[in-house]
Amino acid sequence: MSGLTVLERRDRLRLARTDQVGPVTFAALISRFGSATRAIEALPELSRRGGRALPLRAVSIAEAERELEAGEKLGARLLVVGEAEYPPQLAAVDPPPPVLWTLGCENLLDRPAVGIVGARIASASGQRFARSLAQDLGAHGYLVVSGLARGIDGAAHEGAMATGTAAVLAGGVDDIYPPEHTALYEKIAAQGCIVSENLIGRRAQARDFPRRNRIISGLSLGVVVVEAELRSGSLITARLAAEQGRDVFAVPGSPLDPRARGVNDLIRQGATLCEGVEDVLRALARPHRITEPTRDLFNSGALDDAALNAAADALRDQVEALLSPTPVPRDEIVRALNAPAPAVLAALVELALAGRADLSPGGLVCQSAP
Fold it and tell me: How far apart are CA 1 and CA 185, in angstroms?
């Protein structure tokens, strides 16, 4: 059973859907205020303190209720970070997506998983390899996770259909893309699991795909890349997997094929060469301990709310002056100011809510784009 009340689940959805509140800011607000309800009450004042002209307000109760009703009508289920039903592997990501919609057998997300991604315009041999690898991984008890895209993704889903597969979408769980995968989508919804962090009814936009890729790697113990050109989306997934401490596997290819350039480069950078399921099983046989990151970003008890506000006031201009378009670790800001980390974080959250700073996963911060 969930440890969150119905009201708190709804308010976490409201907070997650609010402009300027990404996963990092969401986690910081929950850490500071202890609940989404209290964080929502604080949003207007925090954003004003950060320099926002019009106070930021959370999406309305009515909007959240409409999304919940749309999910119920679709037969989807909302999973909220902080409740027991949230996928444990994804909960270990720092920070995890605040909310997920699932359609189908969401209990599959509790199983150990391997992501398989690759080129959309994939060769016949690449698709055959992905399909066979997915089938073999499923036979060994692994859930296969991919992104429902053309090419390698579709082949991986097909190979694991009988044993369990999850498709992570960039749009809402009802956004079937590409349209030619409608039949595949319907099979996964019936036999596997469709996953998205976006609201019901949302159509995918370009900025949604990196977030989709982060969930694919976050759900997985490791990610296998089968065919990828340099600077492809699959390489973004591989980079995110490495940042999350996941194993990265690459299927080698001919140097004459542009689709092999990305995977061969991954091998040069240290990815595990994958020629079949045994390579994956051997690497995953090493102990993998799921440890949730520290959520108490504000060192609860070190500063009361008034003291935290006063400290943020004293630091805010200095913090903003240190930001640039190039992301830097938050710890560098703390060291440069020789200031308490909770006070620096409080100032950064206020700036983020005002649209003047971007807080990214991995502890990176930068100026907001104009």
Answer: 29
